[in-house]
Design brief:
4-stranded antiparallel sheet
Length: 318
């Protein structure tokens, strides 16, 4: 689009906010229909219309039937291209939203599904957060637009207003519509880079000693009564006596009890960053942990579900 057409479009969006950019938030799915699709000529379309006007005047002035027929055919193609551009967006459905997890300062990946029930929609473009994405939606199927948003702060990140438009098929007209999905994606807090470990109570004297388990600790000579499944047959074939695998299992690590009130001398954001780091370390180290916040408590557990519950609570702290 040239500079003049961009200025005209910007003027229309300022003067007609109810028809263009400033639509209220809407719940997904959103179906585009004729009352919310708008069409304007592109810069190329205006130039082409001027050319058709010149051709029409020349054909009438010189009574040239062939030139007049060509002008009428091109004019009909122009009108048809306007209808095709409208039909690309009419009936298009913006459906399911999916998002990955991200930390503050990262870019969160978001996927948005588009579907069409009747016919294929070609060259559908979406302007999202200053970037344009193009997709074609098959007839009776769906297509996915993947984009990334800057996660500037923790908590719920609302989706920006999205412009859906097309210049298909000839680039003479631009059909567009604005949507503002009433959907949000969650941004986790950024953990602190380094710092102390949480207080870990001292266990008994046997903590850390190997226990009977499934991991091989060493080989020893066979003793009567040893289970046959523990005999190292391949290694025993190289020796005169039978060798037995001595199995061990490391003692479990101490559970971590993470508490908001135990982090002293820091402001709220620094406390959240430290607790987030401790939750990450507990998960990566295979520990079980609990988390106590002023407005909630998560009992001793481990696993992805417990991890996401804890980080969600930290992300939504006021």
């Amino acid at each position: 689009m040239d500079g003049a057409a961009q200025r005209v479009l910007a003027w229309a969006e300022r003067r007609l906010p109810a028809l263009t950019r400033l639509r209220p938030q809407e719940a997904l799915p959103i179906v585009l229909h004729r009352r919310r699709i708008y069409i304007v000529p592109t810069g190329f379309g205006l130039g082409f219309a001027t050319l058709l006007g010149v051709m029409l005047v020349g054909a009438l002035n010189y009574a040239n039937n062939a030139a007049l027929m060509l002008t009428c055919l091109l004019g009909a193609a122009t009108a048809g291209s306007m209808l095709v551009a409208f039909r690309v967006l009419n009936g298009l459905t913006i459906g399911t939203l999916r998002a990955d997890t991200a930390r503050v300062g990262e870019r969160i990946r978001v996927s948005l599904d588009l579907s069409a029930h009747e016919r294929e929609r070609s060259a559908v473009r979406m302007d999202i957060a200053g970037t344009e994405y193009a997709v074609s939606v098959p007839a009776g199927g769906s297509a996915t637009v993947e984009f990334a948003l800057d996660a500037e702060r923790r908590g719920w990140l609302p989706l920006p207003r999205i412009r859906i438009h097309t210049r298909w098929p000839l680039g003479l007209f631009r059909a567009w519509s604005w949507i503002h999905p009433d959907s949000t994606v969650l941004v986790y807090p950024m953990p602190e880079a380094m710092g102390p470990s949480p207080f870990e109570p001292q266990g008994d004297a046997d903590r850390g000693r190997p226990r009977v388990g499934d991991e091989v600790a060493s080989l020893r000579d066979y003793r009567p009564g040893d289970p046959r499944r523990q005999i190292a047959w391949k290694l025993s074939a190289r020796h005169h006596d039978l060798l037995v695998k001595d199995l061990e299992q490391p003692a479990p690590q101490e559970d971590w009890r993470l508490d908001w009130d135990s982090v002293r001398g820091l402001d709220d954001e620094a406390r959240i960053a430290r607790l987030a780091r401790w939750v990450d370390e507990a998960r990566n180290g295979g520990r079980r942990w609990s988390l106590r916040l002023p407005d909630g408590y998560f009992d001793i557990a481990q696993g992805d579900e417990h991890y996401h519950r804890c980080l969600t609570a930290l992300a939504l702290r006021p």
